[in-house]
Design goal:
It is built from eight helices and 21 strands. It folds into three domains: about 100 residues, Thrombin, subunit H (Beta Barrel); about 110 residues, Trypsin-like serine proteases (Thrombin, subunit H), CATH 2.40.10; about 90 residues, Pdz3 Domain. It is globular. The protein is an alpha+beta fold. A hairpin with a 5-residue loop joins strand 2 and strand 3. The strands form four sheets. The protein has a six-stranded antiparallel barrel. Strands 8-9-10-13-12-11 form a six-stranded antiparallel β-barrel. Strands 15, 16, 17, 18, 19 and 20 form a six-stranded antiparallel sheet that branches.
Length: about 375
Amino acid sequence: MSGHHRFVALAAVITACVSLPVYGQQPQPADSGALSGLATAKALSEAFAQVAKRITPAVVNISSTRVERTRMAPMSPLFRRFFPELEDMFVDPKREIQSLGSGVIIRPDGYIVTNWHVVQGAQQITVKLSDEREYEAKPVGQDSFTDLAIVKIQAEGLPAAKMGDAKKLQVGEWVIAVGSPLGLAQTVTAGIVSATGRRNLGLQGYEDFIQTDAAINPGNSGGALVNLDGELVGINTAIASEGGGYDGICFATPTSVVWPVADTLIREGSIKRPWIGIIARKVNHGRLGRAGVDIDGGVLLYNMIRNGPAHRAGLHPGDIILQWAETDISDQADLSEAIQATEIGTEVRVVILRDQSKYAAKVTVTERPQNVPARGIL
């Protein structure tokens, strides 16, 4: 409110205070617009409270521990000279690495979905429920490509989240995030859907993120993103931040991705993913234009895995992939989706641009090895 407007409002209050009442004058009704606005605010506040009551029992705190052996610093030549017998006596020390995150109960019999990076390589996983009960959890399956994992605890009758339809989300719609940021369990924050279908962020293999400005911090990973009906619409996964904390740009994996992955992991324990073993980058069309090359779309083959499918097919770093089978490729997300839609073992005709000339190559899609990092490798 401007200074002029503040002055006018204050003057109105003073006038009301010093004016004498007129005999027989009826009291003026309160501003109906203000009351209406207050009622709307209270209704929204009550909606937030009801959603929080509904979803928080289904959100858990997850702590995981993995043990890594670290290398000792090499013995100095002088120490080795005077104490040679000690060189083989020392054991490389071990260190425990702990990870804190969140999870969402999706079945009453103890199945919980979380992010793969929360439980990656864990030797021990502990789940704490909203009522403070703790259970040791066992890994059921993981999919690094979508950064999702399923763990299970031995419990029955648990409050499971109701699955919503993320495809119905609208930009500007209110959403609520629940998780354990910085270890603070059952933290509830609210915001709006900033965007849907965010891709080409380089966060994981398959990207189709909900972007939100609901406050999400380290520890929220694996937690719930819900709509005002209390339905799960996403799993909070990542943030874009200069300093590592909340900067208002947060990403959640939508339930349209979460549910098929979770269902397959529960039934089969793993997901077989196709791949061709390349690292793709955005094409610099400005540079190509200056070199006299005029193309639309395409993906730069930045590097590749030695002896991977693309390498065996004769593709080279620097090639620009223009077409996969009959599909034109405009960016990395297009190529990733095209590869994921291809059955393992299929030979695919790929059109590439190399040295300003177009060539066709045949690439046989194979199963993605489990130990290959998902980030940026197609």
